[in-house]
């Protein structure tokens, strides 16, 4: 008999859902995390009474009623609707790409006018079947939108040319011909009242949790502690990078407390030109309609990941997808170890997809 049924590596959303559900089934779980806190990248730190999204802004959104109800067991959500604005040089546009954007870009008013301009620009490119992000963007929105709102931002965020990136990344964003600045198409959306960390805390209530514990060290000293391992860290690191390192993008945040009540008037402002070194500025209080006297902002700088940095985004291009497949094969042979989450599955998951993936995996177990 081993001491625990499950050793869960990573106290982020995937690990926490696993711990919660397994706990309900009477399984004994130990959750460890390398960081000195739980909640992975949805962790929030309170500064000046404001929940600061320490590892990047997170807005929960889903079209899946089951997942929405699942999350509502742990929290209530507020009615925040994400409506970022984009700054390009001295111009300001609404996102996602919608009639407000088109009207500002071309001085037009109707969907017919917008469609005609996009159609004309699309024809000029000659693209019929988009094969990469650049072609996809030109195909959807024409040259002006691409040059002003997509190219610079994307190349900053990914550190790669738009011609070398997969088209699906840009298909995450809606293109619509109505005046609607809601960034997401999903049925349900909001920020948890009380913050994200509190959700994970609730999920982990029944488990034993140890933070500041490195799995690879821990395993050396405790090789037989659990029947099964759920690993939510980087899959290539798990295998000692033996097939080569997968690529990730990292983000560095420069966070400042400002002695002003309202700095930018919106939670998310994207800087889409190449010359501005950061991709966006987040003003955290606006996610929760905060009325504090001060404000906290974070500038996001994107960079290539290297050992010692935090991995945020998998780079799901052809080369990395092939390498991931090779790791996947190793993972399948690894007895009693389950891989999951954004890093374990090497997939650009949103939070709802993480929860769905965990619940699906639990069914199989
Ligand atoms: N994007 C863009 N301009 C913007 C915002 C997003 O071109 O102002 C593109 C960019 O390629 C980015 C993708 O849309 O990688 C997805 O953006 P999203 O906001 O979904 O990224 P996340 O919030 O996950 O970082």
UniProtKB/TrEMBL annotation:
What's a GO cellular component annotated to this UniProt protein? cytosol
Q: Which cofactor is recorded for it? A: FAD
Q: What is its EC number?
A: 5.4.99.9
- List the InterPro entries: UDP-GALP_mutase (IPR004379), UDP-GalPyranose_mutase_C (IPR015899)
For this protein, the record's Gene3D superfamilies field holds: NAD(P)-binding Rossmann-like Domain (3.40.50.720)
Q: Which residues form the UDP-galactopyranose mutase C-terminal domain?
A: 148-348
Task: Give the enzyme's main class according to its UniProt record, as a single word.
Answer: isomerase
Q: Which SUPFAM superfamilies match?
A: FAD-linked reductases, C-terminal domain, Nucleotide-binding domain
One example GO MF annotation = flavin adenine dinucleotide binding
- Record keywords: FAD, Flavoprotein, Isomerase
The superkingdom of the source organism is Bacteria
Q: Which family is it part of? A: Belongs to the UDP-galactopyranose/dTDP-fucopyranose mutase family.
Q: What is this protein called?
A: UDP-galactopyranose mutase
Organism of this sequence: [Ruminococcus] lactaris ATCC 29176
Q: Which gene encodes it?
A: glf
